[in-house]
Amino acid sequence: MFCRNQTSRATVARGSAMEMEVKRGRFRLSVLEDSAQDCEVQRRIEREVRIREGASKLLAACSQRDQALEASKTLLTSNSRILALMTQLQRMKEAQAMQRAERRSSDGGSVDERLPCTGKIAISDIRIPLMWKDSEYFKNKGELHQCAVFCLLQVGTEIHDTDLVIVDRTLTDICFVEPVIFTDVPPGFDLRVELYSCCVEGEFSMGFSTRRLSRLGSASSKKFLASLETAASCSSHSSVSRSAESSPRGESPVLLPVLSVRGPKYHLLAQTSLTLCHIQNSFRTHDLTISDTEESSFWLPLYGNVCCRLVAQPLCMTQVVMCGKLRIRSETNPEDWRDVYSVLSGSDLKCYQQQDDTDSLETPLFTIPINKDTRVCARERDPALHSHSITIINQCGVETTHTILTYTSEDTHRWMEAFWQHFYDISASSHSADVLRDSSTHRFNP
Q1: How do beta strands 119-129 and 173-176 pair?
Q2: Would you tell me how many other CB atoms lie within 10 Å of the CB of residue 279?
């Protein structure tokens, strides 16, 4: 049999020599996990390298404006992903070296590896106001200046790009309506929002009527996507063979710098960073840092702000943390013990009559609030109760106390560990958890 408790962990056969070494403390399972993560990061890098090569070839060959702008955007996005992945790979190597040093210095001592839960974040309805001169906007005077713009959104190694939008003096706002969702995001995330702009030359402006260029994968750009995949696959054999020659021991391939290709070039126009404190169910305005001046060809008269909606959903608020059979009584009625099936999830410990009621969406018999103001403590085997117990005290408003009976010391330990981890997760994601709890619904609706 194999241990497959988590998909991100390495698979180790039970009773094998590797498992015995792990149990003896000579080998930590995290070393295997890091190795598997290294391979995954390298595969992602190789994929982005092939996409970059395909985009470079298409950019050099295409003659239509929409294809050239899309290919140049793909090139910039792939370069950003490669840089982020290479940075992550370097950090993982450094972390592995530090772990080996710690194991040698501590002689196999245990290290507290408690980590807060991750979650999802979504940003949507991005609106960047423009500030045109009166003579340009109202009187429609001067040369018609057009720029192709898009946003690059990054959290760690996860990078997304928005649709392309053609901007001229007839627009008052740059809008990116579609939501972008990031998964497996830690509470200390840093969401970078970067606005890139490219001046649309006169010869490309002829015959172009639509303001919004479709995203890769939509109906009007399937030909471009097919061309990109073909170019990428054609270059994959040569890139794989080069990487095999340069890394015979499975190390990360040497990345050659991208060749300079003629075509439209995007430049960073403005940027901002959003963190956990910016989470809110409503729209908020954030300051933009403008990176260039009016003399640049790709410049646009930005007002200096960006409006958007940023929401989050910590996993501790949606997933089941712990469940099992318990006996519970309230301090108000100490003789009334109730055998229930309890589920710890979100901000509640829900108690059902039986386990099947959780699947049939039955209303729980009663619910015990679990939040940052809740106190939980374990008691040794009580002679009066003849069992191990856990006390839950809520001090919000009128103080209430519940006593929980477990059947073994192992059950007590498991429930207490679940409570402490849950409190740790709520504390780390307190702002987004409070926003989600205070909203009218717990659904993640970007």
Answers
A1: antiparallel
A2: 21
Kindly report the number of other CB atoms within 10 A of residue 187's CB atom. 21
* 300 dihedral zone (left: phi>0; alpha: psi -120 to 50; beta): beta
Quote the percentage of the chain above a pLDDT of 70.
69
Residue-wise pLDDT for 395-434, tens only, equals 877 889 999 988 788 888 999 999 999 999 988 877 666 6
Nearest to 350 by CA among 334, 339, 363, 331: 363
SS3 label, residue 2:
strand
Rg of the Cα atoms in the chain = 28
Q: Which of 211, 207, 143 is nearest to 175 (CA)?
A: 211
* C-alpha–C-alpha distance, residues 20 and 384, integer Å: 42
Residue 233 CB neighbour total at 10 angstroms: 11
- In the three-class reduction of DSSP (H, G, I as helix; E, B as strand; rest coil), residue 352 is classed as strand
Ordered by start, the domain boundaries in the chain are: 318-438
What fold characterizes domain 318-438? Answer: PH-domain like (2.30.29)
Contacts of the segment 63-69: beta carbons below 8 A, 24+ positions apart: 65/200, 65/204, 65/205, 65/208, 66/208, 66/213, 66/221, 66/224, 67/224, 67/227, 68/204, 68/263, 68/264, 69/148, 69/164, 69/198, 69/200, 69/213, 69/264
The better pLDDT of the pair 438, 291 is held by 291
Alpha carbon distance 279, 288 (integer Å) = 17
HEC secondary structure over 251-282: CCCCCCCCCCCCCCCCEEEEEEEECHHHCCCC
What is the pTM (predicted TM-score) of this model? Answer: 0.74
C-alpha 227/C-alpha 233 separation (Å) is 10
Question: Sign of dihedral through CA atoms 288, 268, 164, 169?
Answer: positive
Lookup: tokens for 221: 């750009």
| Chain centroid, CA 219 distance in Å | 27
Sign of the torsion angle spanned by Cα atoms 63, 200, 47, 178: negative
User: Which of these ranges, 90-94, 136-140, 362-366, has the smallest mean pLDDT?
Assistant: 136-140
